[in-house]
Amino acid sequence: MPATSIHITALDGIVNVNSLFTLAVFIGLAWNPTDPSNSLIDPVEQPGCSPGPKVAEDLVAYHVYSFSCFLFSSLVALGLKQALRLSRGAHQYSNRALWAFDLAHVNQTALRVGYVVSAVGSVCGSVFLMLALVNVVQIKLGMLGCGGNGHGYGAVVPLLILVPSGLFIYVCTVFYAFTR
């Protein structure tokens, strides 16, 4: 199957979005969640609302999981892109020289599976990044289970609605492309 600009553009898009999210993960990891000056919680006004060390540990873990998923997705997308370019190059130049031979034949099924694997990596990375952001909100504004934490819920509820909605649209689009 010869490469098309649509395939290359789609893979470039996956790599670019993953790169932006990876940057966000690194910025998140550079932030020190145990620094008391980073918290907006008033222990006198909201006793018992301060998060424990488990929340900070989960924050770092979710950032690392997110980074690994985005890196995995990007590497799969870059590998597919390279295979497509090799296939296109072999297809274009095989008639020009006697010594030219097909460098790669890209199996359409393997290409589709690669797209799905890359998409799954991006979705998992997005979910872990969302979970990390929920922990950031808990560290900054107090535990969500704590009474009177309207600001925390105000930050988390749109996150928990918009990100899964966007991921649902993304998954539906990938599924549609996979079946065509």
TrEMBL record:
Keywords linked to the UniProt accession: Membrane, Transmembrane, Transmembrane helix
Oxidoreductase among keywords: no
Recorded superkingdom: Eukaryota
Keyword Membrane: yes
Species per Swiss-Prot/TrEMBL record: Sesamum alatum
Bilayer-spanning residue ranges: 12-31, 60-80, 113-133, 153-178
Name recorded for this polypeptide: Maternal effect embryo arrest 60
Coiled coil: none
